[in-house]
Amino acid sequence: MSKRIKRHVEDFPEWVRDYVVHRTYERRRNQYSTEKTISHCVSVDVVPFKIMASNAKSKTLKWMVSGRCSVCGLSFTVNWNNVWLRKRHRGEEVCGRCCRKESYTDEWRKANSEAQKQAQGNRAARKRMSDKLKQVHRENPEIRKKISKGLKRAYRDNPELRQKISKASRRNWKNAEYQDKVSPKGFYHGYFNSRCGRVFYASSWELAFLTWCEKNDKIESFRRCDDHIKYRKPSGGIAYYHPDFEILWTNGRVEVAEVKGSMQSWDVVNRKRVAAQSYYGESKSYWIAFKEDLKRIGCFVGAKKVSEWIQKLSDDGVIDSYGKGKSSKAISLQGKSSRPLREVQTRIQCGRNGCP
After folding, report:
1. CB 222 within 8 A of CB 213
2. C-alpha angle 321/322/327, rounded to 5°?
3. Is the pLDDT assigned to residue 131 strictly greater than 70?
4. CA-to-CA distance for 45 and 124, rounded, in angstroms?
5. Packing angle between helix 123-139 and helix 141-157, nearest 10 degrees?
């Protein structure tokens, strides 16, 4: 039997015997046995702070003590040795919350914030946190829904928060370094100054398509499509799809065009296509313009000429570009000819047949 296990109340000092309680636990007969037996012992429960402070000679005891904070007046329960580990109010009847309030000064908060930014701001730390979040979301899909609902509820119930985030976003986008930092995948993006007003483009392929719409006499007007189409993702969740452009022809026909340079997931693209065709029905015609379609209508710009072409349009005032590609590698990906892309284009039969 271990010497630390006490069997009788008389094994404790007289001043603490009133707070000794009987406990039951399971233990093995020896290190080789799997059978467990039920044993009985006695141990100290919660001791009042004042009695402990006046009788305890050891500051390393892990007995629990209860008291009432002399600062805030609230009751608390804490390990006795933790009382002596504090930097402030050591050995005093003060709760941990009040100790932390006085310890966390403005200088400490500033130094701690800088230390956390330095430790968590490096690339390796960000990658670890990102991988961990992805793993948690994969193992428990309900967490993503819970976070999304919480954010929506916070934005809906707090208009001041929405206004604060909006102002911060507009202020950040005025910074050129921030624009280049958050540019998605290095693609060109900006505004095209057309006869129908300023139209946003998210890639050089979309810009090439807009220049074709600008020169086409049979197109009366075109704009960025603002429809939100609900579709079901392969994982089973619900998401919203935003098509690229809405075109009004001179004969009154309305069409919705999606410029698709590459397709990393055919399943997702097909789900969006089916949802869009079901959403519009007979009111609007929906089609996808692929790389071969842009070449056929004569508006495709190769990867080697994209940079010069974008710069010329910017110098002529045709576009107001607030972000450009981070590297030539990201731009070169747009010009690569993908064999699976042609196969998918033939399968869905809405690129070549739908594009005028």
Report:
1. yes
2. 90
3. yes
4. 46
5. 110
Rounded-to-integer distance, Cα 95 and Cα 51, Å: 17
pLDDT tops 70 at residue 24: yes
Q: Which residues are CB-contacts of 232 (< 8 A; sequence separation ≥ 6)?
A: 238, 239, 271, 275
3-state class percentages of the chain: helix first, strand second, coil last, to nearest 5 = 45, 20, 30
Note the pLDDT of residue 106. Answer: 84
State the average pLDDT over residues 106-134: 86
Q: How far apart are CA 39 and CA 42, in angstroms?
A: 11
* CA 96/CA 104 separation, integer angstroms: 12
- State how far the Cα of 351 lies from the Cα of 356, in Å rounded to an integer: 9
What CATH code is assigned to 186-348?
3.40.1350
Dihedrals φ, ψ of 33, to 5°? -90, 145
**Domain spans of the chain?**
9-103, 110-181, 186-348
